[in-house]
Amino acid sequence: MTKVITYGTFDLFHEGHYNLLKKAKALGDWLIVGVTTDSFDLQRGKLNTCNNVMERIEAVKATGLADQIIIEEYRGQKIDDIHRYGVDIFAIGSDWTGYFDYLKEFCQVVYLPRTEGISSTQLRDERPTVEIGIIGTGSIARRFVKEAGFVASNSVTTAYNPDKKECQAFCEEFGLKPSASSKALFGKCNAVYIASPHYTHYEYAKAALEAGKHVLCETPLVLKEAEAKELFKIAKDKGLVLMMAHKTAYCPAFGHLVTLLQSGAIGEIVDIKAATTTLTDGKDAKMDSARFGGSMNENGCFPLLPIFRLLGTDYKKCYFVSKYKDGVDIFTKGIIFTDSASATFEVGLGAKTEGSLVVSGTKGYAYVPAPWWKTSYFELRYEDQNQNKKYFYPFDGEGLRYEIKEFVSAILANGYFYSKLPVGEILAMSRIQEEFLNGKKVRILK
Ligand code: CTP
């Protein structure tokens, strides 16, 4: 029996893919098709795929041409697969001519003629574009525009800031059309990125959703749980995407850390320690009490992410200890308990500490070095150090491109979308913010 293997992303499955599989199948008796995983595509810098790995596998399966489908998840896997499956022929489209000659040492390599005039790239370019309007034109919005340029199927078209001068300068810098009001902005886009001060998020997000716009909102989404619930209800009723722009939640390393720990890599989780401190000038708006500044409001969503993801959102108690200056918490420590585990977190704008994440388990622990919230690397550590493992991932640019990709994909998927940051976790984060702001469980240090 002659075994043939071929690989591809097979995004937006098209005629060229079908023809290639047919030709590959004709070379032998058994066709193995390797489909790249989403994280492998990310590692290869393919940030623009429209279908996720399950959809791409389904598309290959639907052709009825593949006798076996495998996933390709790491560089160098092709050699392993050739040995593992006893492959006779490696086949790939002619756009790769010469590139895979190194496999000739292991099997026959065939470059098949490519179908002219069609490609996933071309189909992606023909897809509708999500037009994004930005509310708030500060430093994060600046980074957002640059990062959006790395993601397919979107364009940032307009911006709004009540400070007209600032808005004008921002729009000039990025070649956007300024909007005179948020209402005017809604008329010029189909999705809104909210990067305004925290206390304005609720009003803007609600207005945008009511105007039929998808919303990506900076952390914290809102400062009260009821407001978060209301926004998600409007989004659901109107079939709109509402996401929190939490860069850690969408970055490849964090996603894999979570799945490793959920699959028992360190045993049962008993404790989490996470800190996110970003030392800030006292004059910064982030430290302005009138604008709901402060460490918890500014940074709280970061350490709460691994805590809720790994321990669940059904916590029993949460206490805070804070140090205040000029009406805002320059440092807050929080303690959370569930029935079976504890967690402590630290956030600061006016105090600095080691910004690592440590997840302790009954068999070992995970260590993510500072700044863990934009990590490309973590370790699993055990009593027997020979068992320790190090994991490396891409974290390109400012990392915002991962959340922008999710947002754009969610909109274009028309409802068939699984969010990497579930609503329940966002509601729990808003609940904690609210508990902190009502002050009952906050011990204030001198
Ligand atoms: N292929 C082909 N003819 C086309 C497009 C792709 O024969 N018109 C082949 C590729 O050479 C490869 C396989 O299909 O062997 C899977 O390719 P993939 O990279 O998934 O598809 P592309 O359309 O080339 O994707 P992209 O535009 O993202 O590069």
Helices and strands, with pairings:
Layout: E1 3-8, H1 15-26, E2 30-36, H2 38-43, H3 53-62, E3 68-72, H4 77-85, E4 89-93, E5 108-112, H5 120-126, E6 130-135, H6 139-148, E7 154-160, H7 164-174, E8 177-178, H8 182-186, E9 191-194, H9 201-210, E10 214-218, H10 225-238, E11 242-245, H11 247-250, H12 252-262, E12 269-277, H13 295-299, H14 301-311, E13 317-325, E14 328-337, E15 342-348, E16 357-361, E17 365-368, E18 377-381, E19 389-392, H15 400-412, H16 423-438, E20 442-445
Parallel strand pairs: 1-2, 1-4, 2-3, 4-5, 6-7, 6-9, 7-8, 9-10, 10-11, 12-15, 13-20
Antiparallel strand pairs: 12-16, 13-14, 14-15, 16-17, 17-18, 18-19
Helix pairs in contact: 6-15, 9-10, 10-16
The structure holds cytidine-5'-triphosphate (CTP).
Q: What is the CATH topology classification name of the largest domain?
A: Dihydrodipicolinate Reductase, domain 2
C-alpha Rg (nearest Å): 24 Å
The chain-level structural class is alpha/beta
What is the CATH domain class of the largest domain? Alpha Beta
In CATH, what is the homologous superfamily of the largest domain?
A: Dihydrodipicolinate Reductase, domain 2
Q: Would you count the extended β strands for me?
A: 20
Low-pLDDT sequence parts = none
